[in-house]
Amino acid sequence: MKASDLFVKCLEEEGIEYIYGVPGEENADFMISLEKSKKIQFVLCRHEQGAAFMAEIYGRLTGNPAGCLGTLGPGATNLITGVADANMDHAPMLVLTGQGSSQRLHKESHQVMDVVAMYAPVTKWATSVLHQDNIPEIIRKAVRVARSEKPGAVLIELPEDIAKLQTTTTPIPPRRFRRPGPDNKIIDEAYEMLKKAKRPIILAGNGCIRRRTSKQLRKFCEATGIGVVSTFMGKGSVDMDADYCLYTIGLQSKDVVACAVDAADLVLTLGYDMVEYHPNLWNKDGNKNIIHADFYPAEIDAHYHPEVELIGDMAQTITMLLDRAEQDGGLSFDLSQQKATREQMHDELAMYKDDDANDVLKPQKVLWDAREVMGPHDIMLSDVGAHKMWVARHYQCHEPNTCLIPNGFCSMGFALPGAIAASMVHPDRRILAVCGDAGFMMNVQEMETARRLNVKCTVMVWEDNEYGLIAWKQQSQFGKHTDLAFGNPNWMQLAEAFGWNGHKVTKSSEIKNTLETALNEDGPSLVLIPIDYRENMILTERLGDIACPI
């Protein structure tokens, strides 16, 4: 068969369901082969960056990779931002790019660049198909590497001449294995540290929302009572309504939740990536007792030097600790600080819930009402901007992967294409994206993709007519900010032009009903929120005066 046909058959064997992308001349053979597939759906996008973000969200929600496709040269460079975002936030992804004929790669040639070298820093593995018979091995390895902890992106480049060649090889059936947990000796050492602690705390990171980890973590907390602070990426690892949920940490300024970490005499980090919230913000003196539990050893850092490292399958690690606690008849700790922290933070989150008679739309009220209309399994996506800080602090979760935030690479333009993919993965759930006016416009062209696919999602645009997060940070640091203002379209006309439903909220009393209406409409909906970002500096000043409850 032709090499491009074999390539598609190998992807089918791996269970690949979607490829998002913008094709070009150099992957024409692959596209013709893909068109014949009855198992893989190609989603035509309006920009390669949008395609990469869609593949990222598919990977986050399913644990399996989707493909994102671009041609050589500018197609590959357009993909790279979304690919870097997925890789740093550990979403499995296959990046599929075309390339010029292998007969012209050794010299200066139209649109030819070294894509493999360019992608090496932003993928787990990047390779080119140099012989058509190698395709089954390459794809089997690529999917395995992309799925394996910690998941990430893999690039496969297919030159146009090799795609046309005949091959006699066949797909390799996938075999998947569970990674073992740590040995009993090191678990015993960690458990002894835990028994001696008086005020332990758990810092739950990105790894806690993947695989079976969240389920085992909840069992462990129910049995021990140890409180859980989550990073932005770890939201939903424990239920927001659980007594041991201490909400989210991650703001640069000291927040209420940091008080519980300050008071802890032992920090058990689970699936924590240093990029999520640097330890110099919660272990400034470098003197915390730390147990590190993850699939990989700890990153070396002066502020993060664990006494014990539990390396291996996360769910198995937690289960082994839980078994020892149950054999001992349970553990007893001083939970007064975490109880006070939870109560104070709960009051913070509810502070503006009844602010219904106000024509000023405050972030706290908008997110309270958003949480009210969203069910436990519905999905919120946050773009990058000032609103991300508010979503991270004020939108709490019941289940893993129900609040998706770009955190490591932290790219704007993420939420609109991400909402499209989320709607395709879970058409039975409510999908709500929160964007700033700046981030939304970075991939505004995907409004057409959403309309063409008729996905059911709602995008809430917070309008402040400037780069609000940069203004916030400059104002906090320098007492002023540079000119960051810009103009915006007529949002309702924009929605109409793309065939979307459109709504504008003018009073806080309208937020909940407007969101309810939009989330129930057929097809995509846009909700405009003229946001009051005066609250940004008010929050900064309040956090500077935070007093710990105990």
TrEMBL record:
Residues 187-321 form the Thiamine pyrophosphate enzyme central domain. Gene3D superfamilies: 3.40.50.970, TPP-binding domain (3.40.50.1220). Keywords: Thiamine pyrophosphate. SUPFAM superfamilies: DHS-like NAD/FAD-binding domain, Thiamin diphosphate-binding fold (THDP-binding). One of its GO terms (molecular function) is acetolactate synthase activity. GO terms for cellular component: acetolactate synthase complex. One of its GO terms (biological process) is L-valine biosynthetic process. Residues 383-527 form the Thiamine pyrophosphate enzyme TPP-binding domain. Residues 1-118 form the Thiamine pyrophosphate enzyme N-terminal TPP-binding domain. Belongs to the TPP enzyme family. This is Acetolactate synthase large subunit. It comes from endosymbiont of Galathealinum brachiosum.
